[in-house]
Amino acid sequence: MLLSSILAAATALATGAGAGVLPRNKHVADFRIYGATGCYEKNLGVWTVIDDDIKGNPCTRFGDDVRSVMVANVNDGCRLHVFTDGECRTGKHTVQQRECYGDSAGLKAWSMECA
Q1: Is the pLDDT assigned to residue 7 strictly greater than 80?
Q2: Where does the signal peptide begin and end (predicted)?
């Protein structure tokens, strides 16, 4: 009985120790989106970007009616691009940290690249 308790405890300890080795995602940027130009009215929230979000440099569509964007923070060597179409082909603008960029026709998608 004592031997089985010791084995169970050792197994639980080994399993728990292995679970703590999971890698964490790297934070890349945060930007706030707005439903009106000027980065003030109709706050739609903060979009947090992690390294998995930008693998392969995907084009990501906004789910809301976005009219302006402000970059709160972005890692050195990374740049946020916003687009007026949903395929990241037209109306490209690179938004700098602390910059407010708006388009009255709306922003449909974003992508990010890091050097």
Answers
A1: no
A2: 1-19
